[in-house]
Design goal:
Layout: H1 5-8, E1 17-20, E2 27-28, H2 29-45, E3 53-57, H3 62-71, E4 76-79, H4 86-96, E5 100-104, H5 110-117, E6 121-126, E7 137-140, E8 158-164, E9 172-177, H6 178-192, E10 199-202, H7 209-221, E11 225-228, H8 234-244, E12 248-251, H9 253-263, H10 267-273, E13 277-280, H11 287-297, E14 301-307, E15 312-316, E16 331-332, E17 336-340, E18 354-359, H12 371-377, E19 378-381, E20 384-395, E21 401-406, E22 411-413, E23 416-418, H13 420-427, E24 433-443, E25 447-456, H14 464-472, E26 483-486, H15 503-506
Parallel strand pairs: 1-11, 3-4, 3-5, 5-6, 10-11, 10-12, 12-13, 13-14, 25-26
Antiparallel strand pairs: 1-2, 6-7, 8-9, 14-15, 15-16, 17-18, 18-20, 19-20, 20-21, 22-23, 24-25
Helix pairs in contact: 2-3, 4-5, 6-7, 8-9, 8-10, 9-11
């Protein structure tokens, strides 16, 4: 059974392309298997096995893709955003109880200081100039490279852990098992009809479930290839498109909009691209953008709906000849998808408006060490376990789902999920701030932007710039409020609770 990463990638031809990158030779599927086996032996030599957690802080690119695939076969991977500040690394690395941290050979950033402070082993990922894309060697800080005998990871071993923002101040740990990853890669491959002849151009960050599973793992599981850009850059995209010659790419709506804005300047490349499909996920795709993309590239645009707890994909618009409906996130694409009563543990009629719930092999077994979140997020009906997404939606008569609103207060900034309470806690550390509530403010391109309302301490003075500058020293840039409103009093509900939902409208920031 293909229920582990090793088994998922075992049967593809040795010489078939697997991982590519700008101005680099291809790493083959056989080469990726060799690298994975070598990495598992190296981890074992360092005393690291399938149950041990290894944080990864690497820039986007082929080494990050290969490191995820290879390391996850010998340990538990925990990719982290390279843009985090030291305080954020301190939280995530300690919360994960990481055994080791993998960084580039020349890395000297904030994650290193955190690892050393907490006694976390640092492993250096070295790359030779003439090696194929993704090939690396792993050593410790003294350059030691011992080999050991690795234990085999099983289907129920954890392969990947990611944090997801919740409605509490503490981000939740989502463990994803080998069988979750294998199921999700298969679901995506089936939805997109991926074959060994397909190549994905990846512009998504590889610390995010979208890039890791939808772009990278699904491509490799199908026997195809993934060409890894160093991140998203609208100016470079068309050159990459020309060089990589992909059959598809996947991105968030803001990226698609940036690509469209430059498409007319690159008509020859667009016409020669011959994309089989374009995929969009992680945030709502405006119908106008979906239509413009399809017309510009003469390819179907497949909007999908995913989240970390589902190991990404839950629903997807189907390929032709079935319709791709603008404004819809498509049909169930792997797991069972229904709507449920928000207050009671019961499923609703097929086309009833309710909270979107899912059940399937791709779904996490549950949040780690968080009984409260698990009790509120999972329920059983007739022996079947369902996960509450926190989104409200409704199916039409053809089984296409439309997301009609979010039940959670999480801010979705262009696909990046931000916990408002995490921002609250940072802003409350400012000496002039007495009270704060962070909330979502509508944005025409990102969907939502981060905003904050604050009340200052008596006799204190602080400008919007002061607050934003303070936040930028403690938070990644995408979490820093773009709008700070200073108020005498923040609107409260009947019980005295600060109200996030609807605050943008109350303050005249809803557009």
């Amino acid at each position: 059974m293909t229920d582990t990463l090793k088994s998922l990638l075992a049967d593809h031809p040795d010489d078939a392309d697997a991982i590519g990158a700008p101005e680099r030779g291809w790493l083959s599927h056989g080469g990726l298997r060799d690298l994975s086996a070598r990495t598992a032996r190296r981890l074992a030599g360092f005393g690291i096995g399938p149950g041990d957690r290894v944080a990864i802080v690497l820039p986007n690119g082929p080494e990050m893709a290969a490191a995820f695939i290879a390391l996850a076969q010998g340990c538990v991977t925990a990719p982290l955003n390279p843009a985090y500040r030291e305080e954020e690394y301190d939280f995530y690395i300690t919360d994960l109880k990481a055994s080791a941290l993998v960084v580039a050979a020349d890395y000297d950033g904030p994650a290193l200081a955190v690892a050393r402070r907490h006694g976390v082993r640092v492993l250096r990922l070295g790359v030779q100039a003439d090696s194929p894309a993704g090939w690396f060697d792993l050593t410790d800080e003294e350059g030691a490279a011992p080999d050991g005998t690795p234990a085999e990871a099983g289907a129920d071993d954890v392969a990947l852990v990611l944090h997801t923002s919740g409605t509490t101040s503490r981000p939740k740990i989502v463990p994803l098992l080998h069988r979750n990853l294998a199921a999700s890669a298969g679901n995506i491959g089936t939805a997109l009809d991926l074959t060994p002849g397909d190549r994905c151009l990846n512009v998504m960050p590889l610390f995010h479930i979208h890039g890791l599973i939808a772009a990278t793992l699904s491509s490799l599981a199908a026997g195809g290839s993934v060409w890894c850009a160093p991140g998203f850059n609208a100016l470079s995209f068309f050159g990459w498109l020309d060089q990589a010659k992909p059959t598809w790419y996947t991105a968030v709506p803001t990226m698609h909009q940036a690509i469209l804005a430059r498409a007319k300047r690159n008509t020859e490349i667009v016409e020669a691209a011959g994309l089989r499909l374009i995929r969009s996920s992680s945030a709502s795709l405006p119908p106008q953008v979906m239509t413009a993309l399809a017309e510009t590239f003469s390819a179907p645009v497949i909007e999908s709906y995913g989240m970390t707890e589902a190991c990404h994909q839950m629903t997807s618009n189907p390929l032709p000849p079935r319709d791709q409906k603008p404004g819809s996130v498509g049909i169930a694409a792997g797991p069972k998808v229904r709507t449920a009563d928000q207050a009671e543990n019961r499923l609703l009629a097929p086309t009833a408006l309710g909270e979107v719930v899912i059940s399937g092999l791709n779904v996490t077994p549950g949040y780690e060490a968080n009984e409260v979140a698990n009790a509120s997020s999972f329920f059983e009906v007739d022996g079947e376990r369902w996960f509450r997404t926190g989104d409200q939606g409704q199916f039409d008569d053809e089984g296409y789902l439309r997301i009609t609103g979010r039940l959670k207060e999480i801010i979705n900034r262009g696909g990046e999920k931000i916990s408002p309470l995490e921002v609250d806690e940072v802003l409350m550390d400012h000496p002039a701030v007495q009270q704060v509530v962070t909330f979502a403010m509508p944005h025409d391109k990102l969907g939502e932007e981060v905003a904050a309302a604050i009340v200052l301490r008596e006799g204190q003075v602080a400008s919007e710039r002061d607050i934003r500058d303070f936040a930028s020293t403690r938070l990644a840039d995408f979490k820093v409020p773009r709008k700070v409103v200073v108020l005498d009093e923040i609107p409260k509900g009947a019980t005295g609770k600060l109200q996030r939902i609807g605050l943008a409208e109350k303050l005249g920031l809803a557009g």
